Amino acid sequence: MSDYQKFLPEGIPDSHLPFWDSLREHQARVQRCDDCRAYRYIPKDLCFRCHGDRATWTAVSGAGEVYTYTVVRRAPTPAYQADAPYVLAHVTMTEGFRMIARLTGAEPEAVRIGMPVVIAYEDVTPEWTLFTFRPAGAPGGPGLAQS
Questions:
Q1: Of 2, 30, 111, 140, which is least packed with CB atoms within 10 Å of its CB?
Q2: Which residues touch 37 (CB under 8 Å, ≥6 apart)?
């Protein structure tokens, strides 16, 4: 049993497991439509653009820029209180889709819309690796685990 007290994914459909497996490998992969080449994050059975039903799990660059963000000052549970205030960022990835995660490695006051960021990986339990974002060029960018 893990000492990790923060939220972990629950009830993940089998069709979404390749994404979570890719995080454990420290190389995020998302679905990409085999017909029109649109990226599909969060995984879907049908492409939002062409309605194709074939997709391949494709590695992404991990780079993006902050589309918008919020500063969390009141933690949702006691496990997050020591982290507050912290930033949740909505990031437009280089490939064109958006992802939401915590932005680490920058004080909340330093975060700006348009700020370049990269995915970082946190091995939080033996079973789970989660992703965060870090400012581009900061230590702990793609491929490096965070503690």
A1: 2
A2: none
